[in-house]
Amino acid sequence: MSDIVLWYTTRGAGAVSMILLSAVVILGLLSSLRFQSSGWPRFLTPALHRNLALMTLVFLALHIVTAVVDPFTHLGWLTAVVPFSSYYRTFWLGLGTIAFELLLAIVVTSLLRGLVGQAAWRAIHWLAYASWPVAVIHGFGTGTDALSGWFMVVSIICVGSVAIAIVYRILQPSRDPLTSARSEFRSGVSRKPDQ
Amino acid sequence: MTMESTKAAEARIRARDRALSLLNNITAYVAFAAVAGVGIFGTVSALTIPGASASSSAGATASAATSTSSDSSSSSSATSGLSSSSGSVSSSSSSAVAVSGGS
């Protein structure tokens, strides 16, 4: 495979990974809202969220492997594992490594949710809110196409969609039917016995 | 179990099957679109690669320099960077030969 094909595959897979990761974040926000409608049962949102997260890992792997094996770049495998170890655009590539490892931690703990426990899984899952912006900044800083019109359009759509989903998530009240029961239970547990 | 509850359970099972089928279809479509997206974005980035317009303008400059040089001194300086086609440039005044040598 020629260097040119590897290079363009790296860039294409990077853009697709950013779109997929944005979709995963939006679906995660909708899952927390227990979104459902006629013809769209509630379990579909987290199921699609999980499928797209795994698909994002595949395209991220394609993005990383094609960048590392490209003989023109000479990035090396260490760059894909250790952040800020690259000779080329050290900071921006390091952000990409961090974003990938955060996403990997989220996916692995989600697959091993029964072993790590609900509290640890939830705490690690909050890293998604850090992984996505770090990945987007990596694209703007490292990307050869960062100033290209098409990449700008793709980035604006992704950032705008996630921003709208976050605002919608903040404005919407919790749809957990057990919210009041949980809060009463917690207050009862935290209350001292002599009170 | 009464007849009504059996029908309700069957309806729920059918609804769940339809939803799972929808999930599989959406996942397959997204996977196909993502694979196509890698090709499309790769092609678009290749067509809009930074520096592509600069190289083409450099080629146009070389062409212009060769075609406008009428005296022998400027012609030799123009062909110094196009060594593989210097012979044909000296025997022809067409700019197309100089451009093909330059690229």
Mean pLDDT across all residues of chain A, rounded? 83
**Helix run count of chain A:** 9
Q: Helix content range of the residues of chain B, please?
A: over 70%
Cα-based radius of gyration of chain B, to the nearest Å: 33 Å
What's the short story on this structure?
The complex is a heterodimer of chains A (195) and B (103). With 195 residues, chain A is an all-alpha fold.
Q: What's the topology here?
A:
The complex is a heterodimer of chains A (195) and B (103).
Chain A: H1 3-32, H2 44-69, H3 77-81, H4 90-111, H5 113-116, H6 118-125, H7 128-142, H8 149-171, H9 179-190
Helix pairs in contact in A: 1-2, 1-7, 1-8, 2-4, 4-6, 4-7
Chain B: H1 3-47, H2 52-68, H3 72-79, H4 86-91, H5 95-102
Helix pairs in contact in B: 2-5
Structure description:
The complex is a heterodimer of chains A (195) and B (103). By secondary structure, chain A is mainly α. Chain A has one domain (3-190). Chain A has helices spanning 3-32, 44-69, 77-81, 90-111, 113-116, 118-125, 128-142, 149-171, 179-190. The radius of gyration of chain A is 20 Å and the shape is elongated. Chain B has 103 residues and is mainly alpha-helical. Chain B has 2 domains: 1-49; 54-102, no CATH class. Chain B has 5 helices and no strands. Chain B is rod-shaped and about 70 Å long. The chains are: A mainly alpha (195), B mainly alpha (103). Chain A binds chain B through residues 4, 8-9, 11-13, 15-16, 19-20, 23, 40-41, 43-44, 47-48, 51-52, 55, 59, 62, 144-145, 147-151, 154, and chain B through 15-16, 19, 22-23, 26-27, 30-31, 34, 37-46, 48-50.
